[in-house]
Amino acid sequence: MKNHPVRVYKSEENLAREDQLAYKIAQVAVDPVEVSEEVTEMIINRIIDNASVAIASLNRAPIVAVRDQALTHQPSKNGNGAGLFGLDNTVKTSPEWAAFANGVAVRELDYHDTFLSAEYSHPGDNIPPILAVAQHAGKSGKDLIRGLATGYEIQVDLVKAISLHKHKIDHVAHLGPSAAAGIGTLLGLDTETIFQAVGQALHTTTATRQSRKGQISTWKAYAPAFAGKMAIEAVDRTMRGQTSPEPIYEGEDGVIAWLLDGPEAAYEVPLPEAGEAKRAILDSYTKEHSAEYQAQAWIDLARKLHGEHPELAEPKNVKAIVLHTSHHTHYVIGSGANDPQKYDPTASRETLDHSIPYIFAVALQDGSWHHVDSYTPERAGRADTVELWNKITTAEDAEWTRRYHSLDPAEKAFGGRVEIELTDGSKIVDEIAVADAHPLGARPFARENYVNKLRTLAAEAVEPAELDRFLTAVERLPELAAGELEQLNIRAKDGFVITNATEGLF
């Protein structure tokens, strides 16, 4: 890996195109380096992971609405169109709308892979747009693997170097460029075209973090899917010869100068050198539980404490619980956010998903976590849960913040230390560094775990034979020929998927 210095340039400095970050990203995208077997296997895992959480979301309101939107847009004249999760492969829509609908389904439950560093991300959000274009363009399994390796690489590398949330910019601003680069690799586009697409994708996907603040709305799931849609449209425009604002990152009126660290900003962005394999997907990790990633380890600790100290489930036994954790966990999903909604039993599912006091209280009482049952209004409104919930606060701990930002995978951590003061005056203290499913956790996720996650989440919606067919296809991904990628769609049981249930402009 090579660290590339990135700063703001005044217009009269005339930063050469080949020295711009967007161009360097494009150079990574066109590098013909082979994808390793290890990376290929992880790409297969993440395609399975995305499918599992998307199928579990098929009839949730945001997915029904966006699917109805997508079904009004027919495949364009220059390709085959792309499929929608849950529907038969005879039903196709244009790739940008397929990416949008499938992306919302993947993101709705906040239950797929993650990478956290200077910024945070769900790099699996690259899969819906790149796969949709691959289906539309009749590409092969190997083409898709190459495109996804690029998408993961660029997103993870940007997340390592450039913080967006510090400036209240939503993290999908790293997704637009990564998806555009991945699509460029998939299609075998030239450096200039990908450079322009990366710039356009960034320019059209910068938005504020209000989508993840206060009373969180259904747009939380739409935001990354919209970024994927914008990336596809950016590629389409630049293939037609259209250009982008430049330098998009480094310009004196560009993203860094006005949306991020300002005119004096300086970053070091790591990117693979020419001929260096794209391995960034191996730095990411998926979720065992349907909740914000910073909650994963805390759920595991809470269910451990539930077994060891069942008395903690009764609020009358607990005086106070403090979760000592990282800056990000405290200020984004903890009491440091100062969002009263994080303690509101009538809050939306999206809000509860971003409330570690709520999540810890429920996991401590139940000794488990469920992607539906743990979020129902009845569960959130239970009197003893509300009482316990309001005794839980978070506090930033400098050491946990340091470990959160560490570049050393062996010490990077997303958990913390819990201190529980009981009403009898005694105290319970415990800690956890990473989730059980993390590569360094107690039970790291392997292929069998991804497959079990799919079978569990899809049990109600999909026939077992259809799941078997999908798994056989995805595990043969490197051998799938051009035009065979529609096999990566999963068809739900007859009559299961709700369609034409909403009305809008289209």
From TrEMBL:
The keyword Lyase applies. InterPro entries: MmgE/PrpD_sf, MmgE/PrpD_sf_1, MmgE/PrpD_sf_2, MmgE_PrpD, MmgE_PrpD_C, MmgE_PrpD_N. Residues 20-266 form the MmgE/PrpD N-terminal domain. Its EC number is 4.2.1.79. Keywords: Lyase. The keyword Iron-sulfur does not apply. It is an enzyme of class 4 (lyase). GO terms for molecular function: 2-methylcitrate dehydratase activity. SUPFAM superfamilies: 2-methylcitrate dehydratase PrpD (SSF103378). It comes from the Bacteria. It catalyses: (2S,3S)-2-methylcitrate = 2-methyl-cis-aconitate + H2O. Residues 289-476 form the MmgE/PrpD C-terminal domain. Belongs to the PrpD family. Monomer. This is 2-methylcitrate dehydratase.
